[in-house]
Amino acid sequence: MSQEYPSALFERAVGEFSKLPGIGRKTATRLVLHILRQPTGDVENFAGAMTQLKKEVKYCKHCYGISDTEVCPICANPLRDHSTVCVVENIQDIMAVENTMQFKGVYHVLGGVISPMDGISPSDLQIESLVARVAEGGIKEIILALSPTMEGDTTNFYIFRKLAAYDVKLSVIARGISVGDELEYTDEVTLGRSIVNRTPFTGKSF
Amino acid sequence: MSQEYPSALFERAVGEFSKLPGIGRKTATRLVLHILRQPTGDVENFAGAMTQLKKEVKYCKHCYGISDTEVCPICANPLRDHSTVCVVENIQDIMAVENTMQFKGVYHVLGGVISPMDGISPSDLQIESLVARVAEGGIKEIILALSPTMEGDTTNFYIFRKLAAYDVKLSVIARGISVGDELEYTDEVTLGRSIVNRTPFTGKSF
Question: Is the pTM of this model over 0.80?
Answer without folding.
Answer: no
